[in-house]
Every structure is written in C-alpha cells, then in structure tokens.
Amino acid sequence: KHRIKLGDSSSYYYISPFCRYRITSVCNFFTYIRYIQQGLLKQQDGE
C-alpha cells in the first residue's frame, strides 16, 4: 500500500497503485521539462 501526505497536515491518505503510477508519471514529466530548460538534454536528430 502507498500513502501520500498533502500539505502540512499530519495525516496520510492511502492511494491505489494506479494513482501512485499517475503521480510518479507527472513528477517524471516535470523533471524532464526542467532538464530541457536547464539545457541538460541534447536534441537528437531523427535522420
């Protein structure tokens, strides 16, 4: 089981594996965007 804590509240909420997957996907997306903004990723040529 996975738990999540929202804000400064001391209580945790249980989330389903699907919800955990969606949350981690969004976090990974924002990390990827941040890497692009910082110039840490090189553009790959498709040819």
TrEMBL record:
One GO biological process term: exocytosis
Recorded superkingdom: Eukaryota
Key words of the record: Coiled coil
Pfam families per record: RAB3A-like_C
Gene Ontology cellular component annotations, sorted alphabetically: Golgi to plasma membrane transport vesicle
GO molecular function: guanyl-nucleotide exchange factor activity
InterPro entries reported in the protein's UniProt record: RAB3IL/RAB3IP/Sec2
Family recorded in the similarity comment: Belongs to the SEC2 family.
Family matches, as PANTHER family: RAB-3A-INTERACTING PROTEIN, RABIN3-RELATED
Protein name per UniProt: RAB3I protein
Source species: Cinclus mexicanus (American dipper)
The organism's taxonomic lineage, starting at the top: Eukaryota, Metazoa, Chordata, Craniata, Vertebrata
Gene name tied to this protein: Rab3ip
